[in-house]
Amino acid sequence: MTDTAAPPAPLVEQRGWSSATGHLLGWSLLVVGSGQVLSGAVGELKGDGDALTMVACGVSVATAGVALARATTVPARIRAGTAFGAVTILWLVVCLVGAVPFWAAGVFAHWDEAIFESVSGFTATGGTVLSDIEAQGASILFWRQVTQWIGSIGFVVLALSVLPLLGVGGMELLRAETPGPDSDRLAPRVSDTTRRLSGIYVGLTAFAAGGFLLAGMDLFDAVGHAMTAIATGGFSPYNNSLGHFDSLAVEVVAVAAMFLGAVNFALFFHALRGRDVRVFWRSGEFRFFVGVTVASVAFVSTVLSLDGYGSRSVRDATFNVVSLVSTTGFGTVDFTRWVPSAQLVLLALMITGGMAGSTSGALKLFRIRVVVAAAARELRRVRHPRGVFAIRNDGRSIDEAIVSNVIGYVMLYFLVCVAGVVALAALDVDLVTGAGSVITAMGGVGPGLAETGPASNFLTVSRPARGVLDALMLLGRLEIIPVFLALRAATRFRRAG
Fold first, then answer.
1. Fewer CB within 10 A of the end CB, N or C, for the chain?
2. At 180, is the pLDDT very low, low, confident or very high (cuts 50, 70, 90)?
């Protein structure tokens, strides 16, 4: 006898998808709306005429978020595909909502420019289409900083909670120790992960803000730059970024904050829980990160000195190396005027990025280590065909499935970059500008090369080209695969319907 009471499986899954997505989106809109209200309040204190517009946007968004969160629930168990789809939809909607204040305040002449600024903010990329940043009111300037701060903590939670399911981010090696969810039971522990990581994130931001205050910034600048330094985002309320201050003290604080933002947040958690800072140095990836940074600074400062750069060789090399390896993108000088060898090192750092589980973007140094180790192993196998050579991380063997997944991800990353360069070339963007724009968009860095370098902005490329860069910023920030899985799941649901 056929049981007609039970609904078909695709319908049940689709309801779970919509409920989980709606609930997570509701809470996200509440956070975004609260950030807009805060930005409006800051603008009001600074006498900004756009403050009420910002507050109105924030109240509307927050109210919609509360209503959506109360109308939906998260199931006790969420399938991985559902989680990836929810995250992708969440980021798309948040970026669109984040663009509303820019459009409502009349900041941009075209709606797509408002979307680009919002996407660049929430993905912590830092590329801008503002021709005169300092001409904007305090509420808009502070909102730009807030978008990066919100987006980066969202990505850290994603990296420590959802991406380990894919086996491509590096955090799956810490699954037993990290305060994230079990692979088959996402909902209950994601909130726990968010709470703990948010506490660390707020603490690091307060530490950076205090440092900037001591370095001579006022409260508005100190808090705003602390937000984007820890978020490794790179937005600044000044046209010349941190070069506006021309202060060694400010640059020292910024270097420290950017470096901390590019460190695996799970290490901060373990260090605080065990009250043992040695946990950082016991991490092979952390030692590798320090080594890459120090070696890059040494090389760039040396070639600059030999080229007659002057007394600021070490200072400017240190700042820009840390700015780009952390994918922050703060600027003090136009590095596109440096000698080619120095630029090549900086370009490589824009591709590698910082540590897994950090706010930095790009490929992540964990993946670079795995790919290099896999290549070295293949060379050893040529000499010893029957040998068994495990790839290790901090004394533990990395599962071969993870190695394969990481190699596949790196290949996919570069394929997407190549496709992006081809797309921009088809839209009449020159090769150097196109390649730099794609790399900076995928890596969430900010400044590119040639016409989109640190001394320029993304108004130099066409509107259709900026649309391509919007997609690349989201793909790079969400680590590509979740977006593809979400698209596949959406296609399957549509067919089932």
1. N
2. very low
Rounded Cα–Cα distance for residues 474 and 125 (Å): 10
Q: Is the dihedral of CA 379, 382, 383, 386 positive or negative?
A: positive
Number of helices (H) and strands (E), helices first, in the chain? 18, 2
Euclidean distance between CA atoms 435 and 433, whole angstroms: 6
Sign for the CA dihedral angle at 410, 416, 419, 420 comes to: negative
All residues at 6 or more sequence positions from 437 whose CB lies less than 8 Å from its CB, including other chains: 424, 429, 448, 449, 452, 458, 461, 465, 469
- 66: enclosing H helix or E strand: helix 51-71
Backbone angles phi, psi at 156, to 5 degrees: -60, -45
Q: How far is CA 396 from CA 190, 204, 355, 383, in A?
A: 26, 30, 18, 24
> CA-to-CA distance for 300 and 90, rounded, in angstroms?
40
Helical axes 313-325 vs 248-261, angle rounded to 10°: 30
Give CA–CA dist 436/445, Å, rounded.
10
Closest CA relative to residue 75, chosen from 123, 22, 141, 27: 22
Do residues 331 and 447 make contact, with C-beta atoms less than 8 angstroms apart? yes
3-state SS assignment for residue 185: strand
Among candidates 40, 142, 57, which has minimal Cα distance to 100?
Answer: 57
412-469 pLDDT per residue, tens:
999 999 999 999 999 999 999 999 999 999 999 988 888 888 888 899 999 999 999 9
Give me the residue label for tokens 């897994």. 356
- CA-closest candidate to residue 360, choices 265, 236, 480: 265
Q: Kindly report the pTM of this predicted structure.
A: 0.88
Residue bearing tokens 């070069």: 243
CA distances from 401 to 80, 168, 397, 407 (A): 18, 9, 12, 10
DSSP letters spanning 480-497:
SHHHHHHHHHHHHHHHH-
Taking CA 359 as the corner, what is the angle to CA 355 and CA 365, rounded to the nearest 5 degrees? Answer: 20
The CA–CA distances, whole Å, from 478 to 122, 138, 157, 283, 298 equal 11, 30, 12, 25, 32
Q: Which residues pair with 396 in a beta bridge?
A: 393
Amino acid (1-letter code) at residue 336: T
- DSSP-derived secondary structure letter, 109: S
* 95 φ/ψ angles, rounded to the nearest 5 degrees: -65, -40
pLDDT digits (tens, 9 = 90+) for 319-368: 999 999 999 999 899 998 999 999 999 999 999 999 988 899 899 998 99
Between the alpha carbon of residue 167 and those of residues 109, 175, 183, 402, the distances in Å are 43, 11, 11, 5
